[in-house]
TrEMBL record:
Record-linked InterPro entries: YqgU_beta-prop
Origin superkingdom: Bacteria
SUPFAM superfamilies linked to this entry: DPP6 N-terminal domain-like
Name used for this protein in its record: YqgU-like 6-bladed beta-propeller domain-containing protein
Residues of the signal peptide: 1-18
YqgU-like 6-bladed beta-propeller domain boundaries: 80-344
Transmembrane segments: none
Amino acid sequence: MKKAILLLLFLLIMTACNQLERRALMHHDNTMSLEDKQKMKSSIKTIVEPDLVQVQTWLDDQTVVYTRSLYEETELVSYNIVTGKKEVIYISQEPISKVVTSTNQTYLFLEATGKQNQTVLTIINQKGEELYSTEKHVQKVTVAWNPFVEEKGLLSLYLGAQQTKVVPFDVNQSKLFEAIPVNPYVRWLSPSQVVYFEWGEGMNLQADVYQYTIQNGKKQVHSHQVNGFEASVDSYLLLKVNAEQEQMQFQFHDKETKKLQSSFTIPMLQSNSGYYWTPSYEWHEKTNTLYTYAPKYAASLFEYEESYKLITYNPKEDIKRVIQNNVEHTPIKCSPSGKYCLMGYQSTKLIDVDEQHVRQIIYNER
């Protein structure tokens, strides 16, 4: 029960933090010169869509997927931001709230709100062909696609009454398997191994990370007292807090030897109750680049009113680069090549990482 409470506390804190950041940063504006605007305008086609709900994700380096609401249906639309070509690839009778693509964008996981508080979970391919669908009575769902075997993944189901369940699935077999005994917030370490947080005694969002082998049920400690974890084919990332120096540290380790390869730090934001803020981040293995945000200075989370820096970091070359100096902290979703990133609570802003230009890509006024 304590583990479920910690998960709920973590989600509530992140929601509150986003609301505070949104209010505090309303006065910040990313100013662009006329020349910059013309450059972006000439290469990017704005999405003109009055019924748009949200830009969801990327299908390839130039194509995004967004949802739009029409009468009692929700359409999933692909849109090429360079050519302006758009196509309806899927129509749902229920409102689609989430779209998550597999590692190579071959499959799309859809979450929709069904009747009688049921959640409809569907997997389609890029053509919109339905490969699997089921309904679950859950409060929240997260998906972790297997980056090593694209057809496989894990669903973390938040069932209510402080109960959770993590269920493997296989697109080729069109089925869910028996739940495995791990906590939500699961990441893949290898084709058949996952890692997850396991909390000890006390209310602390720092936790030990355990690795679990799905085939034989073997479990062992992987890392101690971390705030975040990601993995790639040959390395893994740990987020750790250095409270004395008021820093959040991003550590990149060799997967086989566990030796530290490189690291960088950002100023730490801490709540009055002792919880540490973790920024939105995305690690692109293909480009070997981490995208994340950094506060201007260490402070109390609820008193910090400045903007953030959008930064990239290459762990193999140990190079950190500031892309934007004054941005709002919002979710970030980058294209497969990492050239473009979607930003904003509805992913309505587009940044060209190389050119460091930011612009709105949505026009949805009626």
